[in-house]
Design goal:
Rossmann fold; elongated; 23 helices; alpha/beta; 7-stranded mixed β-sheet; 9-stranded mixed β-sheet; 644 residues; 3 domains
Amino acid sequence: MLRRWSFYLIRKYRHSTISQWLVLVIDVVLFLMAFGLMEAFRANGLPEVFTRGNLIKFIWSFMLTTIFFFITGSYRGIIRHAGMRDIYKIMTTAIAPLILCWIVNIINYQFTPPIVSTAYMLSYRESLTLYLILGILMILSRMFMQRVYNEFFRRRRPSVNVVIYGAGAAGMIAYNALKQESNYEYHVLAFIDDDMSKVNQQLNGVPVMRARSVLNTKFIESKNVKQLIIAIPTIRTLHKQAITNKALDLGMTVKAVPHVSTWLNGSFSANQIQDIKIEDLLEREPIKMDNVNIVREVVDKVVLVTGAAGSIGSEICRQLMTYQPKKVIMLDQAESPMYDLQFELKNTYKDHLDRMAFVIANVKDKARMEEVFELYHPQLVYHAAAYKHVPFMEENPYEAVFINVFGTRNLADLAIKYGVQKFVMISTDKAVNPTNVMGATKRMAEIYIQSRSNEQTHFVTTRFGNVLGSNGSVIPLFKKQLAAGGPLTVTHKDIIRYFMTIPEACNLVLEAGAMGEGGDIFVFDMGKPVKIYDMARKMIQLSGMKGIEIKEIGLRPGEKLYEELLATKENTIPTYHPKIMRAQVRRYPIDAIDREYNELWTILEQMDDMQIVAKMKNIVPEFLSNNSIYCKLDTSTPPPQRVE
């Protein structure tokens, strides 16, 4: 019966807190105990608690101590969460009356005879003994109540064994944050540090070890370590990637402590520890940019950005605003994304609203584009507007050609007409030896603007691969598939792609645009290509989910296994920037281009996809379709003649 009632009480009050008045009563009882022990020590045995002198000592010391209970509020804390601040209050409660007793004694002994009889005063030794015992008893009582709560009343949480990489300040902050976490019970088994002076030391009783002593199968499996937390906010990218890859291979999930600048109100909690994302494993060391050329190019200029609401266009706009342009005209046909961009930039650059203009328009509408050029007279154009999804464009070549080719022609012709100083087009690695409609349209756009460069208007092309986190890229797709429980789909197990971060790509676009002299095609150093299958596998490991399948679904129409940044007959020459190369490409006669593009325009009006693509293959002879209905155009007709 008693046992049943005890379990009932535990369930009923497990989440309740002890009343502060009950804690105050407990502290008063502890004072009584401390006074009795003090008297016992003084008398070397049972104290004479009922003497007149002892009673007076007790009354005034009790009143004094109670006053300090209220002053310090030592009884108001939630005991289950008691920490150093609560200990500080307890020590203040004990030390303050002790000091006051000594001051009174010092003053009292200045008189002969003393003002107050020493029989009614606590001696130096008695007061020290009393308040030392009181402080110890109060601390021990909190520890005891915490222990009881943790053993019997606290809700049982899932247990997670953790190692922390970094035995510095951030490591200790992460450790303390984990101990305060309410949803999981974290057990930190080791700190890892590369500083040998810290190895074999301890932090809060936890050993500091070398990486190789912890990050091995024997240690991880024997200790059942589930998670590694990187607590070095300033860690270099490559070092972070190496640690993460090693931990993932050992079956752990990986998290990281963010930079202190991102902490909420300057404080840190366990829920701010961030998951390592696949983007972190694909990033490279930040490119060091000397932005003097960009500043000289952009400052006090009117700049037009097409495709401004897209991943690349919006980042170009953000970066342009930092270079003090006279005005940035942001143009896109997508209404909702443009609204989001407008809201963001107007809040970020509240003092420069006059430097921004937002225009809803389509680049294929030449009359509307002329209206924009007539109104704003841009001096620089960054052309990022384009259809980019390979499967969609394979199914809709009419739209792909209309936007990517003739939309670009509209802008290029207007740039010349209105005296634009520089026109920078964003191209893609899919324009090299294209195997799909989208890549071929981008190559045709490159050919057109390269032929238009003149002394007044310099046309520049920038060509790079995939960007991390861009709209429609493979990473958001994998995230959606993971959220749905899988499987993750890859088109081919051996397919590879180049990746670059959006800010990095846009910064290089601005730098390449500044160095371009007209007719240039710049190629960016994209680093090492990434296997999409390996990316999917890493994303599953990072998620911590088990049993997620990776399914191979076959190449999509027009898709390549390997992207190229240069055509087979092209080569590059270096520029002053190590990440930007100038491609040496074949140039086309302007008369032949005009003739061919006018013929394509006539064919476009007929809306016959086969005829449209056949003409594209005539203009771009290296365009050989892959896994597409247009493959028959490569075999059923004689090889097209090169445009001359």
